[in-house]
Design brief:
Number of strands: 10
Shape: elongated
Number of helices: 13
Helix content: 40-55%
Radius of gyration: 42 Å
Distance between the termini: 98 Å
Strand content: 5-15%
Structural class: alpha+beta
Largest sheet: 6 strands, antiparallel
Mean pLDDT: 86
Length: about 375
């Protein structure tokens, strides 16, 4: 039965059961195309005239035969999964206090009719099983109020896109294996040298402490910077941060030769400035032994074999389970993009794994051996 109305049943009128009789609900807009509008307002309606040709009419025999065949249409596990996810979305929606006045109620009887509708779609599309494109019909069967249409449409879309199919692809395992492989390559090709360097220890960022002088003395950093090996200069020393100038101006103070860094001479007395040892780490690369490289090449080959197998599985699924996506009589073919989202994401992830594998191989094949360069420089020096 097909019926049309300018309004929906009001709440509280006891007509909620109507929704189980009228399974599919569609908004019909006004006539948009100019020629169709002109025909509508000018041509005779002939509402009581049978305009269906004999070739399109369904006989009683065909109708009963089709009903039996429709009941034999298979419902795959992933379609059941989509239905359960949608029901869960509806339950969560109804439990939310914000939706107290916008409850979505779908009876078990209506769910049975929805499944029958999807079976019919599969049958009339000449398929033996319901597919994910048939599941888009569900969104026209769930809403009771017009302001629920967007909500239920999103429920159906999310359920199909995120939970419609799960391929047993071990992408995460390969990702972990690749991460470990990268760590191993960097470990064997990166060496760290500790470089020890003696530096002056500063006090209050203003002084250097003098060791070996008659008193516990300090020299200001600014004064120290003015010293030279070529000439003497009078400067002041500081005792306990107090300037001391009575008789201890440092006539004849200068820095000693370059062979004794951090030494100064105060009135012919050689003293050392307080220093500390600063340890820094310097990285350099080292080319792996050919036998190690051969082992790594084998590992690269294994990983790329895994990714090729994954691509084959995705392609097989696309060509077999999803080959009828864009030929559904009752569903807009553009919705197939939603179904293929996860599949496209998987292909992108596999491609990233292959790029990363090739990057690691290119790295260890073309790495510079800085160890040999360092040895040559040392020898030359």
């Amino acid at each position: 039965l097909i019926s049309a109305s300018n309004e929906l049943p009001n709440k509280g009128e006891g007509l909620e059961a109507l929704w189980d009789r009228f399974l599919v609900r569609l908004f019909v807009k006004g006539v948009e195309k100019t020629q169709n509008f002109n025909d509508m307002i000018s041509k005779s309606l002939n509402a009581g005239t049978d305009t269906i040709g004999p070739a399109l009419k369904i006989t009683d025999e065909e109708y009963h035969k089709w009903n039996k065949e429709i009941n034999l249409i298979d419902i795959p596990e992933n379609v059941f999964n989509v239905i359960h996810v949608i029901r869960n979305y509806i339950e969560i929606h109804n439990k939310n206090d914000k939706n107290k006045d916008s409850q979505i109620y779908v009876s078990d009887r209506r769910w049975r009719k929805i499944v029958q509708l999807m079976r019919t779609s599969a049958f009339l599309n000449d398929r033996k099983a319901v597919d994910l494109m048939d599941c888009f019909l569900i969104k026209e069967c769930l809403w009771n109020e017009t302001d629920q249409t967007e909500t239920v449409s999103q429920f159906v879309k999310d359920a199909i896109q995120k939970h419609g199919y799960l391929l047993p692809l071990n992408i995460s395992d390969i990702r972990d294996e690749l991460k470990d492989f990268d760590t191993e390559v960097k470990k064997w090709t990166t060496k760290i040298d500790e470089v020890k360097k003696e530096e002056l220890e500063t006090i209050d960022n203003s002084y250097y402490e003098i060791i070996g002088f008659n008193y516990k003395a300090r020299i200001s950093i600014e004064d120290y910077k003015t010293l030279s090996t070529d000439y003497t200069k009078n400067i002041y020393l500081y005792l306990d941060k107090q300037q001391y100038s009575s008789g201890y101006s440092t006539a004849g103070t200068y820095r000693v030769n370059k062979g004794e860094p951090f030494h100064i001479v105060i009135n012919d007395k050689e003293c050392k400035l307080q220093t500390l040892e600063n340890v820094s780490k310097k990285k350099h690369t080292e080319k792996p032994h050919p036998s190690v490289t051969r082992d790594w090449d084998k590992q690269v080959k294994v990983i790329l074999t895994h990714t090729n197998n994954l691509k084959s599985q995705v392609e097989h699924y696309r060509n077999n389970d999803l080959k009828y996506l864009r030929v559904n009589l009752f569903v807009n073919p553009t919705l197939a993009d939603i179904v293929e989202t996860n599949l496209n994401d998987m292909e992108n992830e596999i491609a990233k794994l292959e790029v990363e594998t090739n990057r690691i191989q290119h790295y260890y094949e073309n790495i510079k051996d800085e160890t040999k360069q360092k040895t040559v420089k040392t020898f030359l020096s």
